[in-house]
Amino acid sequence: MPFDWIMGLAGGALIGTAAALYLLVNGRIMGASGIIGGLVDGSGRHNWIERAALVAGLLIVPMIAAIAMGGAQTHLTGNWAVIIAAGLLVGVGTRLANGCTSGHGVCGISRLSLRGIVATVFYIGAGGLTVVLFKHILGVI
Amino acid sequence: MRILVSFTVGSLFGLGLLISGMTDTTKVQGWLDVFGNWDPTLAFVMGGAIVPMAVAWRLTVGRKPVLAASFPTPPEPKLGRNLVLGSTFFGMGWGLSGLCPGPAIASLGFGGAGGFVFVAAMLAGMAITPFLRARLDHRGVTV
C-alpha cells in the first residue's frame, strides 16, 4: 500500500477522532464551514469563544507541525482570479448547503444522513466536472 | 473546559489534515481529476475519519454529551435548492482551488499569500450568503 494512502488513513483517523471528541464531549458537530461561518455572519455569537478556540487550534497546530517537519507545500495556484472566485464559491456554497467536507462528508455520512450523502455526491461531482473543464479543456488550472 | 476541548478538537483536526496530505491542493485536485492522474488518497482520509465518527454516533444512543445538555438534533432530511445549489457551488470552488474550509484554515500558517486571499474571499462569501439566500427565497428560485 503506497505511503500516501497510509498517511491518509492515519490523518483521517485523527480527523474522525477530533469529530468524535467534539460530538461526545461538547455535543456539537465538527463542521468547519458551520463553525467559521457562525463567526462571520453572527449566527454563532452565543458560543463564539468555543468556535474561535477550535479555529485557533486548527490554524496554530498545523503551522507548528509544518515548521517542525521542515515546511509543507500547499501548491495553491498563483492565479489570483481563480483563488478569489474559488474562495467566494466555497464560502457561499458551504453556507448555502449548510456544510462542507467535514460537516456533510465526515459527520453526515458516518450517521448515514441522506442530506450528507446527497451533498457529498453533488460537491464531488461538481468538483470533478470543474477539474475536467478548467484543467483538461480550458487549461486554466 | 468546553473551550479547552474545542481547542484540542481543532488541533487534532488540523494535524489530521496536514499529515493526510489534505492541505496539499494537488492531492485534492488529484482525487477530483478522474480523467488525469487520479489520486485516491482522499478516499482513505474520508474512510479513516468516518469509522471513528460512526462509532461516536453509536455511542450517543441513550447517553448525554459529557459537557452539554443534549446531542444536536439532526435536521429534517430535506433535500432542496440550498443543499443542491450550495454543494454544486462549493464543489466548483473546491475543484478550482483544491481547498475546502478546514484545510484553508489549517494551511494559513504556512501556505503563503494565496491562502490568505482565498480565506478572505471565503469569509466574504460566507458573510453575504444570508442575503443571497433571502434573494433566492424572494424570487422563489427552486432546482
Short description:
In chain A, 74% of the residues lie in helices and 0% in strands. Chain A is an all-alpha fold and 141 residues long.
Roughly how many Å is the radius of gyration of chain A? 17 Å
Which range does the strand content of chain B fall in? under 5%
- Biggest β-sheet of chain A: count, sense, barrel? none
Query: Topology as H/E string of chain A?
Result: HHHHHH
Largest interface: A-B, 108 and 115 residues
> What structural class results from the helix and strand content of chain B?
mainly alpha
How would you name the oligomeric state of the polypeptide chains in this document? heterodimer
Helix content of chain B: 55-70%
- What is the N-to-C succession of helices and strands of chain B? HHHHHH
Low-confidence stretches of chain A: none
Total helical elements of chain A: 6
Helical stretch tally of chain B? 6
Sequence-ordered SSE layout with sheet pairings:
The complex is a heterodimer of chains A (141) and B (143).
Chain A: H1 3-26, H2 32-40, H3 48-68, H4 80-96, H5 101-109, H6 114-137
Helix pairs in contact in A: 2-3, 5-6
Chain B: H1 2-20, H2 25-32, H3 41-60, H4 81-97, H5 101-106, H6 113-139
Detailed description of the structure:
- The complex is a heterodimer of chains A (141) and B (143).
- With 141 residues, chain A is mostly helical.
- Chain A is 74% helix and 0% strand.
- The radius of gyration of chain A is 17 Å and the shape is globular.
- By secondary structure, chain B is mainly alpha-helical.
- Chain B has 6 helices and no strands.
- The longest helix of chain B is centred in the last third of the chain and has 27 residues.
- Chain B is globular.
- The chains are: A mainly alpha (141), B mainly alpha (143).
- The interface between A and B is large, with 108 and 115 residues.
